[in-house]
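Support case: user asked for a sample of complex input and structure output to validate their parser. Sending the pair below.
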Amino acid sequence: MATDRPVSRRQALKAGLALAATATFAAQAARAAAPLLTRPVPATGVRLPVVGIGTNRFSTGDAAWNARLRDTLSTFARLGGTVVDTAPSYGDSERAIGAILGETGLRERLFLATKLDRDGVADGRQRLEASFAALGTRRLDLVQLHNLIGARTLLPLLREQQAAGRIGHVGITSSSDSQYAEMEAIMRREKLDFIQVDYAVGNRGAGERLLPLAADRGMAVLVNLPFGRGAQFRAVGGRPLPGWAAEIDCASWAQVFLKYVLGHPAVTCAIPGSTQAAHVEDNLGGGRGRLPDAALRQVMAVYFDAIADS
Ligand SMILES: NC(=O)c1ccc[n+]([C@@H]2O[C@H](COP(=O)([O-])OP(=O)(O)OC[C@H]3O[C@@H](n4cnc5c(N)ncnc54)[C@H](OP(=O)(O)O)[C@@H]3O)[C@@H](O)[C@H]2O)c1
């Protein structure tokens, strides 16, 4: 038989904390179990998870470093990530990724995107073959003209390779406002499968013309620098997450930043750079659960601007 013994303040507090911990744990578990959202590439209908990985800091190194990168990429694939962005100009990132793919057999589970940064056709062809060799693959899912280099000369080469089945998709990239006008002109002139551009809550310029144009032209969008090369983490410092973060299932600032980007309907996939498995897990969490609507995205932008100005 239950007795109605008076409950002390301490006991009540303890019970309340235990309940809150259970609720937090349940919310975390629900978030982790939510499926990774996907969006289609308009040109081919291929569906991509909305969070990928940027690898500009991947490189071959000592055994411990190589193991760390292998763990990062394996965790990424195990948790459902597929889009891996690299470039021949990122040191030997392509070679480091190729080595990991050789060791893990992950190639077929990934959507491999690299870039081309040459103007001349002979040079470009050589550089492209070097990317196939370094990555150890016979097919690249996406090749992008890096920072618009070769936009007048090399698209025919990429389309030839696409027709031959060696390249899945063709695109162009930029990460600088000073190139936006030129990027827009190329997007209007050419039929492209993808663009890649910098866009973040602290850097919203691409949202004005380029992202709406990509949607109009049926081009998929990869977003680079979603954390402003890490500067956004420094800007928020140790601040707790605002109350509205829970409304969109965010457990970290990384997820807030990614969900701001993914809340834009033209964005196909954000590619945060990371060399750490724990960060990859955090970032993929940004692709699960609810996304902000236009009104909340406005609140997020105002909130971030106020921090950046303070
Ligand atoms: N023009 C172009 O085509 C172009 C230009 C720039 C970048 N990109 C592509 O875009 C990718 C992303 O750019 P980025 O890596 O320079 O900048 P970013 O994604 O904005 O930020 C990366 C930084 O954030 C840190 N980070 C990642 N996840 C985190 C987390 N959950 N919590 C705390 N810190 C975290 C990373 O450190 P850790 O390594 O320790 O995780 C790194 O210092 C590049 O890798 C590249 O593939 C393309």
